[in-house]
Structures are given as C-alpha cells and as structure tokens.
Amino acid sequence: QVQLVESGGALVQPGGSLRLSCVVSGTRLSFYTLAWYRQSPGSERELVAHITGTGIGIYLDSVKGRFTISRDNAKSTMALQMDSLKPEDTAKYYCNRFDGGWAWGPGTQVTVSS
Fold it and tell me: Reading across the β-sheet that carries 108-112, which strands appear in turn?
C-alpha cells in the first residue's frame, strides 16, 4: 500500500519561499509521473505541477517561473520549491502520482499572508 507524507508548509509573507517535501513509501517512484496538487477551502483540488520520469517539469500557468518540482527516485522523495509566493498560493498542498491514483496523504498547509 502506497503512503504519502507531505511536509514543509508554513505561514510565509508574500514574496517569500518555501520548500515542500513528500516521502513516498510502498512503491518505486521510477515507474510514475509524479505531481503536486493544491486545494483551497471551497475549491476543487488543482494540479500545480508534474514531473516525468525523465525529470521534465510541467507547471500550472500561474506558478510558472516561481515553482520548481523535483524528484529523487533513489530516496523515494519529491519536492516543490516555491519562490515569490503570492497570497493566491495559499492552500493545502498534496503530492501524488499524475493521475491522483494513490490514497491521498494529509497534505501540508501553505499560507501566504502579511
């Protein structure tokens, strides 16, 4: 059974940076395209970024140039570096495979506010 544990969320001021981490257990990451999603209260979960097996990152337009997704198959981890954060980035962030096919982890809360 695959388990996902996200960490790294915090309260940060606009313009600040955060690095989210995700530890994946129960499978080999190299088999999958991986992704970060986010969800705000009252909104549907949206795909923020995904990364192919060859390390190519694809991003939601609103985060292009500010967020960077990465993966480490050997350590079974993935990360999301978030720079130049904006209040509209406030959400709970989740990691999963690209199709959202694993059971969702608890997520990690990111709040961007002055």
Answer: 11-12, 108-112, 91-97, 34-39, 46-51, 57-59
Would you call 63 exposed, middle or buried from its count of C-beta atoms within 10 A (0-12, 13-18, 19+)? buried
| 42-91 confidence digits (pLDDT tens) | 999 999 999 999 999 999 999 999 999 999 999 999 999 999 999 999 99
DSSP 13: -
Angle at 10 between CA 111 and CA 89, to 5 degrees: 35
Q: Please name which of 39, 24, 21 lies closest in space to residue 80, comparing C-alpha atoms.
A: 21
Sort 45 into a burial class: Cβ within 10 Å, 0-12 / 13-18 / 19+: middle
**Environment class of 4 (CB within 10 Å of its CB; exposed 0-12, middle 13-18, buried 19+):** buried
Map residue 5 onto helix, strand or coil: strand
